[in-house]
Amino acid sequence: MNFKKDLKMKDNKENFDAIVIGSGIGGLVTASQLAAKGAKVLVLEKYIIPGGSGGSFKRKGYTFDVGASMIFGFGEKGYTNLLTRALKDVNEKCETIPDPVQLEYHLPKNLIIAVDREYEKFINKLSERFPHEKEGIRKFYGTCKKVFNCLDSMPLLSIEDPSYLFKVFFKAPLSCLGLARWLPINAGDVARKFIKDTELLKFIDIECFCWSVMPALKTPMINAGMVFTDRHAGGINYPKGGVGKIAEKLVTGIEKFGSKIRYRANVTEIILKDEKAVGVKLSNGEEIQAEIIVSNSTRWDTFGLNSNDKGLIARDYVPKSEYKWSETYKPSPSFVSLHLGVSGELINEDFNCHHIIVEDWEELENEKGVIFISIPTLLDSSLAPEGKHIIHAFTPSSIREWENLSREEYLEKKENYYSFLIEKISKIIPNLDQNIDHKEIGTPRTHRKFLGRFEGSYGPIPKKKLLGLLPMPFNTTNIENLYCVGDSCFPGQGLNAVAFSGYACAHKIGSKLNINNFKLPD
């Protein structure tokens, strides 16, 4: 598949049931689900490859993941294996490589803990470090398991659809009631109910922060329950060939079912008529119409919120509910990312794939407070030339650190962050600086430009502590025929979470188009 091919459509003679703006995983799952139901969908992507932060790029024989390499959602059983299910629904499959350890933490006071795939092994290891909290550890993670079991026992589709909710309640009433109980609860509140040790509570903070970029008190319990249990149930599984394979396979499935994707197709406006979304306008002036419009852009980019100069919706038509949302949520920091090709001799084969470094708990939510490190070639050596490894490291960084700089100041700041990251990585991988074959440095400005995300942000986080997931908006907007999908929607950030958002969005649209299967998924 040639993703660089420009598929310009001179005349809009084709009729599409839905247009999806953006080919992030949420957008692609929406499109693939609709295509599998029989709808004709057009995906419009401004860049030259699909996937967004779930994509991959190639440099000098290396295949680098744009974003995280720690992937949930590829289990074989239950309903939370959303990536497996989404691919299967369009007759596709990713070959995956199981990771025996989710990640290894390097924390203050020499607290080094590896989260093993085996649940009991991890619990016992944590209990050995905090023997006085042994009972509390089991109660907290056991509660997470109960939340996960509720999720895993019911088909995960749109909770906006009353008829679907009725069918699910009839199928699994206890799971529905159990899940409803946890909707307004945050993980930190549950942890504090069972655990008193401040260091252990800090550990649970970083357990949440590593995927939600929020401490436990701001992390919804439903999300925590899924992540903290699925890593032991379905496990962490890396797609062979890189994370970008997920998007590529979804695109293949979309096209196989008669729908289309266009690259270098930059949508600048969602066209409204009689206050309904009826089409889109591209940067080249081309207009394309469809019955349904789905935005996989962030809500800031879709509606021109905060200091965003211009959204896809004209300012006069932005619903008040979106301004209210922007008062409740703020963009999380972006990242400075480092993609390195290094000598293979630098890293032992028994070294764990994923690592997190925190040196000062007080800096957890601050600039450079956390270092994320992944070495995906420990799982898939085909990502690098023979005898080489890939190190992907990133640290939170605000766009405000990178604005109003001269070209010289910008380059100097990049080198300073590069040196900072090399120094920190070298604490667990010595002699790194002398063994680098290739390097790529990305900043929040890089992520804003190539991913098209407001401030290059990872996603929305609450401005203050909220009632779990209750305030998070669903896919429907207050503009008729316009839907949103992705991490600005329930249930938030992460590939598996945005895949859920895609399923939910496609189900809600399917109800409107009358193309949903009445039966619940197997």
Written description of the protein model:
With 522 residues, the protein is an alpha/beta fold. The chain has helices spanning 25-37, 82-89, 119-129, 134-152, 162-171, 173-182, 187-194, 198-212, 221-233, 244-256, 299-303, 320-328, 407-425, 444-451, 495-513; strands spanning 16-21, 41-44, 56-59, 62-65, 96-99, 101-107, 111-116, 236-239, 260-262, 267-273, 276-282, 287-295, 329-331, 334-343, 354-357, 371-374, 388-397, 436-442, 460-462, 482-484. The chain folds into 3 domains: 16-94 and 239-328 and 461-513, FAD/NAD(P)-binding domain; 118-236, no CATH class; 331-456, no CATH class. The strands form 5 sheets. Strands 1, 2, 9, 10, 11, 12 and 20 form a 7-stranded mixed beta sheet that branches. Strands 7-6-15-16-17-14-18 form a 7-stranded mixed beta sheet. Helix 1 links the parallel strand 1 and strand 2 (41-44). The radius of gyration is 22 Å and the shape is globular.
Give a short summary of the structure.
The chain contains 15 helices and 20 strands. With 522 residues, the protein is α/β, with parallel strands linked by helices.
> Which descriptor suits the 3D outline?
globular
The number of strands is 20
Sheet with most strands: 7 strands, mixed
Helix tally equals 15
Low-confidence stretches: 1-11
Computed over alpha carbons, the radius of gyration is: 22 Å
CATH topology of the largest domain: FAD/NAD(P)-binding domain
CATH H-level superfamily of the largest domain: FAD/NAD(P)-binding domain
At the first level of CATH, what is the class of the largest domain?
Answer: Alpha Beta
Q: How much strand?
A: 15-25%
Q: How much helicity do the residues have?
A: 25-40%
Arithmetic mean pLDDT: 93
Q: Give the terminus-to-terminus CA distance.
A: 31 Å
- Domain module count: 3
Could you say which structural class the secondary elements and strand pairing correspond to? alpha/beta
Task: Just name the CATH architecture of the largest domain.
Answer: 3-Layer(bba) Sandwich
